[in-house]
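Input C-alpha cells:
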C-alpha cells in the first residue's frame, strides 16, 4: 500500500492555466475599455458638431423671424391697409379661379350613380385652402342619393358628405331634391 505524502513546505499546485486565462480576460477587458473610451470621444465630437448645427439653424430662424416681424410692421401701417386688402382679395380670386371645373365633373362622374342628377354645384374655398362643394342633386327616390353619399365618403377624392335638406317631388319638379355638402381634395 502506497500513501502519497508531500513533505515540502509549499506543495506543488497547477496554477499556470488559471493565470494564463486571467491574463487573457484582463487583456480583453482592457481592449474593451479602450474601445468604449474611443467611442465616447467620437460621440462627444459628433455631439459638438450637432450643437453647432442647431445653434446655426436657431440663429437663422431668429433672423427670419425678425425679418418677418419687420415686414408685418410695414404691412400693418395705415397707408398700406388698402394694398393689403386688395392683395387678399386678389389671392382669394386666384384660389377660386384655380378650381378646375373639368376635374370636378370628371371626379364626380366616377362616384355619382347613373340615376342621380347633379342640378347645381357651388365650390367654395375656406381659410385652410380646402374646397367644399355645395351641390343640389335630384333623383326619383332617396335610395340613389344615399348611394351617392356612401360613394362620396368612400372615395379618396372626397371627404365626409353631409345631407343638409331634401325636398319631395312636386307638380313642377318630379325629382327628390337634396342639398349635399362634401369636402373635395383637389389641389389648388
Amino acid at each position: 500500500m502506497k500513501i502519497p505524502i508531500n513533505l515540502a513546505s509549499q506543495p506543488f499546485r497547477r496554477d499556470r492555466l488559471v493565470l494564463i486565462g486571467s491574463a487573457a480576460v484582463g487583456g480583453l477587458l482592457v481592449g474593451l475599455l479602450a474601445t468604449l473610451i474611443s467611442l465616447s470621444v467620437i460621440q462627444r465630437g459628433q455631439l459638438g458638431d450637432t450643437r453647432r448645427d442647431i445653434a446655426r439653424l436657431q440663429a437663422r430662424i431668429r433672423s427670419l423671424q425678425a425679418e418677418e416681424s419687420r415686414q408685418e410692421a410695414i404691412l400693418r401701417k395705415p397707408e398700406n391697409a388698402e394694398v393689403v386688402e386688395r392683395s387678399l382679395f386678389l389671392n382669394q380670386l386666384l384660389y377660386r379661379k384655380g378650381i378646375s371645373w373639368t376635374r370636378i365633373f370628371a371626379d364626380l362622374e366616377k362616384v355619382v350613380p347613373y340615376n342621380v342628377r347633379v342640378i347645381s354645384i357651388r365650390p367654395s374655398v375656406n381659410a385652410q385652402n380646402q374646397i367644399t362643394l355645395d351641390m343640389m342633386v335630384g333623383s326619383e327616390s332617396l335610395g340613389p342619393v344615399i348611394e351617392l353619399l356612401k360613394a362620396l365618403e368612400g372615395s379618396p377624392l372626397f371627404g365626409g358628405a353631409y345631407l343638409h335638406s331634401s325636398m319631395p317631388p312636386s307638380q313642377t319638379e318630379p325629382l327628390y331634391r337634396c342639398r349635399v355638402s362634401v369636402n373635395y381634395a383637389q389641389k389648388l
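The chain has a mean pLDDT of 85. The chain has two domains: 16-76, 99-184.
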